[in-house]
Amino acid sequence: MNIPKMEFEINTADFLKIDDIELSDLLTQVYVTAGFMEPAEAITLLEPSAVRGRGVLIGAREKKHQKLAGVVIVVPPDSPARRMAKNGEAEMHLLGVRPEYRGQGLGRMLIEAAIDRAKQNGYSKIILWTQASMTSAQKLYEASGFTHIDDMQRNGRSFKIYELALAG
């Protein structure tokens, strides 16, 4: 059976008019329903204004139905949400693609959009961390050029830290 390739529009949240309900729904589905975050944590970590306040929210809408299919955040070095990046470096947070849109290359497109945004802003590097149990995300990061540089424990979970140097 030949499944038609879906088309996506990728841009900033403002441009795509991403509302809080669809943002919350997507992040809850990707992180809480899938078992990567406890519902109690999600109340604060995935609260839409807090998510938006981290940095530049980039989204992807499936063109035919206009459904929000995925998101990623580029966190600048001056953001209070920054955890590991140094001055001149960005972080990538909360990459998420709805299950029904996986396997379409959307995760890679969102990563590329985040990298492009970081380059446009003159950042020298992007840092991210992902739960050790998120093996498909790790494969995607590595295929996108990120290098695993360290491991850490936080809130009883194991994480892998990745970085990507950005050419000027």
Question: What characteristics describe this protein?
Answer:
168 residues, alpha+beta, globular, 6 helices, 32% strand, 7 strands
The helix/strand order is: EHHHHEEEHEHEE
User: Residue-averaged pLDDT, rounded?
Assistant: 93
Low-confidence stretches: none
CATH topology: Aminopeptidase
Count the helices. How many? 6
Range of helix content: 25-40%
Write down the domain tally. Answer: 1
For the CA atoms, what is the radius of gyration?
15 Å
Could you give the count of β-strands?
7
Strand order of the largest sheet: 1-2-3-4-5-7-6
The CATH superfamily appears as Gcn5-related N-acetyltransferase (GNAT)
Give a quick rundown of the structure.
By secondary structure, the protein is of the alpha+beta class. It has one domain: Gcn5-related N-acetyltransferase (GNAT) (Aminopeptidase), CATH 3.40.630.30. It has a seven-stranded mixed beta sheet, with helices on both faces.
